[in-house]
Amino acid sequence: MENDDTENSGTQQPKKPPEPPRDFSDVEQFLDGETPWRDRERSQLFPERPAGVEFGVLLKKTREADGGIVRCRDFTEIQQIIGKQSQNVEVVWIPGSEFGIPWELLPSTKFRGREGAWNYFSTVAKSKGLLGLGLLAFAIYQKEFFLIFFAIFLILPVFDALMTWLAFPKNLLAREVRNRGINITLFHKWLEKRGRSIKPLIGFLVVLGIVFLVQVFKSEQLSVFGKFMAPEIGEAALEKKAVIAGEWWRILTSGMLHGFIFHIWFNGSALYSLGRCLTSLSNVYTLTIVFLASVVGGSLASLAFKTISSGPTVGASGGILGLLGYLLFVALRFRKTIPFDLTNMLIRNVVLISLIGVLGAKFIDNAAHAGGLITGIVVGAIIGPHRQDWWNQKANVVTQAIAIVCGGVLAWTVYKTIIEIW
User: Fold this and answer.
1) d(CA 177, CA 55)
2) Which residue from 53, 107, 155, 286 has the highest number of Cβ atoms inside 10 Å of its Cβ?
């Protein structure tokens, strides 16, 4: 009996290469120009098709690569590039569209509503939940400290999933879910493109790091680990008795100090994240004013609830909470244009900080946190944008002048802090 290879029923037929999508109507309907991220003419999110490019990808410029336009043979090659380096892909060019499309908005991309909330929770719970449970086991020895990590790695994902679930009503149609997803994606890409200069913010983070290293160097602890866990706070920490005695500068200098390495790591990460968001929505002038005012507001609130025998308070948390309060005020004030997920993220941070404050009440100054948050909200009401086209508002001369003075005060505060702990 002869074998006929041409009639081998077990042979798998090669997969048909995917065809490029031809319908971009769900994207185009959003390009009505009502907001800058939905303005096709003026937005950088939708670059025109370069001459001679039928299939192509625009890559970001990174330290490892120059970026630029990559011509592709077909849609399959585009998908391969997206699969390998999606984070570096700006837009794709495909026949059927006159402009570049952010790859997340291709018709094949599905934006999940309530189903996405459960998927998110299950993914995060699997990756971080076990770590949270492991840290909980150490609560016998360091109850408050490890409960905080447990809250971050397990309780917070539950809250995130709940916020996503509430944001998508049950009766929302699949088309409406996708429309919301498109609006959110365009907003965040616009925010990233808009990104004001963050060099002053990075510079201030470096300064805080230098101050912490001075604290470590001046610490009387013998071990390196001990130094990083208990750095010197000298005569610059916030103490009610000392402030009453006339050392008012502690209201400012305490915001430049940190109690241990995890303290400055958490605060530095939060300051960078919130500060970058604030400068993108507003400007660096506003950032300077809000931070300094909130450091003072947090310190005054702490003094109001401190007793003479209370221990010293250090940390930039008051100023950071002020940035959060300002952003939350702006997001709620312009909730008709700012996508809900930014507001959800800010509310999430408030819940997280409140939860950490409750669990770590023995060593966390919750009054300073609350004072900084409230100060940020108040400053937002005073100098925050008030027009519906908030993205077009710029800092006026008065705001710029106040910000320059605040910058000078911050520079003096850093100098005074180092002098006092030296």
Assistant:
1) 28
2) 286
Please indicate, yes or no, whether residues 359 and 215 belong to a single structural domain of this protein.
Answer: yes
**Sheet-wide strand order for 68-72:** 68-72, 55-59, 89-93
Q: Which two tokens stand for residue 303?
A: 């003094």
Q: What is the pLDDT of residue 227?
A: 54
The domain in which residue 278 lies consists of: 195-421
Strands 68-72 and 89-93, by their bridges, are unpaired
Verify that 87 and 200 share a domain, yes or no: no
Residue numbers in the chain where pLDDT is lower than 50: 1-7, 9, 222-225
How many domains is the chain partitioned into structurally? 2
pLDDT at 354: 83
In a domain? residue 184: no
Domain boundary among the residues 71, 105, 139 is at 105
Closest CA to 111 of 208, 205, 220, 184: 184
Asked whether residue 217 falls in the same domain as residue 358, the answer is yes
Q: What is the pLDDT of residue 232?
A: 76
Residues 210 and 92 in one domain: no
311-362 pLDDT, tens digit per residue, is 889 999 999 999 999 999 999 999 999 998 898 889 888 888 887 787 777 7
Distances (CA, A) of 114 to 117, 173, 259, 335: 5, 11, 41, 21
What integer pLDDT is reported at residue 267 of this predicted model?
92
Q: Would 18 be classed as within a structural domain? A: no
Alpha-carbon torsion, ordered 232, 236, 242, 246, to 10 deg: 160
- Give the pLDDT of residue 331: 95
* Structural domain includes residue 310: yes
Query: What CATH number does the domain containing 351 carry?
Result: 1.20.1540.10
Which of 105, 123, 149 is at the close of a domain?
Answer: 105
Does 271 share its domain with 383?
A: yes
Q: CB neighbours of 330 closer than 8 A, spacing ≥ 6?
A: 281, 282, 338, 380, 384, 385, 390
Mean pLDDT of the chain: 82
The pLDDT of residue 225: 47
Sign of the Cα torsion 130, 132, 136, 139 reads: positive
